[in-house]
Amino acid sequence: MQPADVEQLKNVEASLTLTPEKAAFSPDHQIIENVPVPNLPEYRLGPADVVEIVYHIRYESTGEPYRLDVQDKISVTLPYYPRFSTTVLVRTDGKITLPLLGDVQAASRTPQELAATLNKQYSKYLKEPHVTVALEEFNAKIEELKKAITTAPRGQSKIAPVAPDGRIAFPLVGNVVAEGLTLAQLQEIVNDKYSHLIRNLDATLILNEIHHNKFYIIGEVERPGVYEMPSRTSLLDALSMANGFKKTGDLSDVIVFRNDGLERPIAFKVDLKAALKQAAPVNLAVRPADIIYVPKGRIDNFNDLVEKVFTKGLWAIVPFSSSFSAYYNINGVRVLP
């Protein structure tokens, strides 16, 4: 390449460089801190993905009075009537049992509020009872949570895989549906559930391992099968992973079936033959559970194609129903009728 050619190439690259001004009009990009970056779809969790839950317990003073909770141990003291003094646990129904009074609601009240209520009720039986309520043991749920995560190698955290049924088991909270959610969505749900149990706890979710991001390539390719996406994968990347297409494959009718995160499956055609001939970019990113089908010849009847594909053993391994429709157009892509 001659110096003039190199200079011309630099000029072409400079003219095509994506700037924030250009990105503002591009649906495929977003601007972060004045830098244009690809507008990537958020990853959605699936079975076998591994999530780490990191727990942050806030011990700083909030200025708000402490409210009694289930399993708190409190002492109820009547200084002039010591035979009625006792130490009790707040039961799972939020109540305590006291001499003379029986069951009394304690959960969600401050010790001072509970003492005022008990003074009023004991006054029916005793003269000037002067009841005091003191905390003996509290934050029992935090201690229970600590015990559940003491074996974690990285401190107050827990490693949890997404089970085959799409759920993750969280300490104290139990099973929570994770499949189909982004990590941020799941974190919000989990923190909301913990907030009803522990008032000063924050949980941060980290995606440690991705195993759900599999897609399928079938038809006239050298190595049909199931593939994992190590990173953002385009349609051409996917075909390359399958060692390319056979000579018998018709690239003008490549079909992508998609269902992940959608109300119902869709399917669309991509004319790769025309795109490659014109050196036009195909800005189509493969998503988890996509099925890429390279046919042997031109497709005339879509229903016949669905029957052909899904009656040859694929029905049992791909997450699609029998009802397909097409919702949108993509640049360089022809939507199936």
The tally of structural domains comes to 3
Biggest β-sheet: strands ordered side by side in the sheet? 14-13-17-15-16-18
The major β-sheet equals: 6 strands, mixed
Number of strands: 18
Strand content: 25-35%
SS class: alpha+beta
Q: Could you tell me how far the N terminus lies from the C terminus, measured between alpha carbons in angstroms?
A: 47 Å
Helix percentage range: 10-25%
Which features would summarize this protein structure in a list?
six-stranded mixed beta sheet; wza like fold; single chain; 337 residues; alpha+beta; 3 domains; disordered C terminus; Outer membrane lipoprotein wza fold like; three-stranded antiparallel beta sheet
Report what the structure shows.
This protein has three domains: 50-61 and 140-209, wza like fold, CATH 3.30.1950; 73-137, wza like fold (2-Layer Sandwich), CATH 3.30.1950.10; 213-335, Roll (Outer membrane lipoprotein wza fold like), CATH 3.10.560.10. Helices cover 22% and strands 26% of the residues. The chain is built from eight helices and 18 strands. It has helices at 3-16, 20-23, 111-122, 140-148, 183-195, 235-241, 272-277, 302-310, and strands spanning 29-32, 35-38, 50-57, 73-77, 86-89, 95-98, 102-105, 132-137, 157-161, 167-170, 174-177, 201-209, 214-219, 225-228, 254-258, 266-270, 291-294, 333-335. A six-stranded mixed β-sheet has the order 14-13-17-15-16-18, with helices on one face. The protein has a three-stranded antiparallel β-sheet with strand order 9-3-12. It starts with a helix and ends with a strand.
